[in-house]
Design brief:
The longest helix is centred in the middle third of the chain and has 63 residues, at 207-269. The chain is globular, with a radius of gyration of 29 Å. Helix 13 links the parallel strand 10 (407-412) and strand 11 (433-436). Helix 1 (14-25) packs antiparallel against helix 2 (30-45), helix 1 (14-25) packs parallel to helix 4 and helix 2 (30-45) packs antiparallel against helix 4. It has 457 residues and is of the alpha/beta class. Strands 1, 2, 3, 4, 5 and 6 form a six-stranded antiparallel beta sheet that branches. Strands 8-7-9-10-11 form a five-stranded parallel beta sheet, with helices on both faces. It contains 14 helices and eleven strands. Among the domains are: 14-156, 2-Layer Sandwich (Beta-Lactamase); 327-457, Rossmann fold (3-Layer(aba) Sandwich).
Length: 457
């Protein structure tokens, strides 16, 4: 009797992979997107565990786990094993690969691991599918790499999505710590000697019991830290949402004023078919509000192209279009309190500088990828404008790649230990100078003037 060996499955069709990517893109909630991604990966490769790691120089092992995109069993301290898994890839992290573990158990069939490298917006890492099924498509590694392209922008995107991801990761990590605490308590109960009768002198505690008590205290402290970090991220998210609502209201007021001025101009011209009239001069409280709103929007580091066209039309109709000489130097101010920099920006513009203001590093990243970003000569970055989970040195290098010759300055409060420590983590070789907060016009001009004389090169 002959036993037929089942044929291995054929490669995944590109159309099927594309449909799976579109299905992920249609997911509105991050939780639904992650669940569908993991479900698809299990259907294709049948892994025993899915681990997502991101490079983090500040971490002890050089890697940090992304719990929100990880599933299945894995040892504690898996971050230390990621580097070993990466080293087993013969050609490094150049492309997705299937790798057989270096250590094999005699008499047991060891399944392959699927290693998928990724990078997005200056961040990089690896997606590991441990112990994939033997009956899997031959191109499963490339298919998973394509599928994951729909995940990274949502997982590592703008400020709000990053906060949501951090909160989700912290929630998963907190749940993991709770499970660890429960297991440690069970071990303690099992290792604890029988209750000693009242008045009797019991034996001294065993070394194992002392060690378990110490581990339990350590886990409890880590759980408290994670819960505090989650609370901080919730507060940051609320603050970002409030800033978005404020900007939307300011934009709505500016659009209403633009429509009012445009309607008044058309009535004076005798209808929409009449020739264009001179700009209506600003006057009154409404005009002052419009001028301030237009100035703030004009200085914003990044404004969508369609909105920028509307702003220019509003400036033309209100007689607020900038018509002065070309700035000697264009500089971006990235600061935790962007609103307070408006007066300073006006003083620098009077000195012949072009000034744009940003509140989040993502605004600079978008600006550097636009044609307008090629004209930026310098950026003064507040060290506390970056979140604690962001790699400041990595962002600086990414901006320099997008805008070669960009002069980067760092600002911090010398009286704040936190700001000084975070500034010291940024290599001096990446910055052209450092400013003390609060920023002042004389000090800024003193350090930027040589750059202006050299033409920003």
């Amino acid at each position: 009797m002959t036993v037929e060996t089942p044929l291995p499955p054929g490669p995944l069709a590109l159309e099927d992979v594309a449909n799976a990517v579109h299905g992920l893109a249609d997911q509105r909630e991050l939780g639904g997107l992650v669940a569908r991604f993991l479900e698809t990966v299990r259907a294709w490769a049948g892994p025993s565990a899915v681990l997502a790691g991101i490079r983090d120089p500040a971490a002890a092992a050089g890697w940090r786990l992304l719990p929100v995109l990880s599933a299945g069993s894995g040892p504690l301290g898996i971050e230390r094993s990621l580097q070993q898994l990466v080293e087993e890839v013969p050609e490094g992290l150049a492309r997705p690969a299937l790798v057989r573990p270096g250590r094999e158990v005699q008499g047991a069939r060891v399944r392959e691991n699927c290693i998928v490298p990724w990078s997005y917006e200056g961040e990089s890492g690896v997606l590991v599918l441990r112990g994939i099924a033997e009956a899997r498509p031959p191109n499963v590694a490339d298919a998973v790499a394509l599928l994951a392209t729909a995940v990274w922008p949502r997982l590592l995107g703008g400020p709000l999505s990053r906060v949501e991801t951090s909160v989700a990761e912290l929630g998963r990590l907190a749940e993991r710590f709770r499970e660890d605490v429960a297991r440690q308590l069970e071990r303690l109960e099992a290792a604890r000697p029988a209750a000693i009768a009242e008045g009797a002198v019991g034996p001294p505690p065993e070394p194992r019991e002392i060690e378990l008590e110490r581990q339990l205290d350590s886990v409890r402290r880590e759980l408290e830290e994670v819960q505090q970090e989650a609370q901080r991220h919730f507060l940051e998210r609320e603050e970002l949402e409030q800033q978005v609502r404020t900007l939307e209201k300011a934009l709505g007021d500016a659009e209403d004023e633009h429509d009012r001025v445009l309607g008044e101009a058309r009535r004076r011209d005798g209808g929409p078919g009449a020739p264009a009239c001179p700009p209506v001069p600003s006057s009154g409280e409404g005009a002052l509000v419009l001028d301030n709103a237009l100035a703030a929007l004009r200085r914003a580091a990044y404004v969508p192209p369609g909105l920028r066209v509307s702003i220019q039309e509003a400036e033309t109709m209100a007689g607020a279009a900038a018509g002065g000489p070309k700035p000697r130097l264009r500089v971006v101010l990235l600061d935790r309190d962007a609103v307070s920099l408006e007066p300073l920006a006006g003083e620098l513009e009077e000195a012949g500088l072009g000034v744009q203001i940003a509140n989040h590093p993502e605004e600079l990243t978008l600006l550097m990828k636009t044609p307008e970003g090629r004209g930026i000569h310098a950026a003064v970055c507040d060290v506390l404008a970056f979140r604690v989970d962001q790699n400041v040195a990595g962002l600086f290098r990414a901006w320099e790649r997008d805008r070669p010759g960009l002069a980067l300055f760092l600002s911090f409060g010398p009286d704040s230990t936190t700001e000084v420590e975070r500034a010291q983590r940024v290599p001096l070789s990446l910055t052209a100078g450092r400013f003390r907060r609060p920023l002042s016009r004389p000090e800024l001009l003193e350090l930027l003037e040589p750059l202006a004389r050299s033409g920003g090169a």
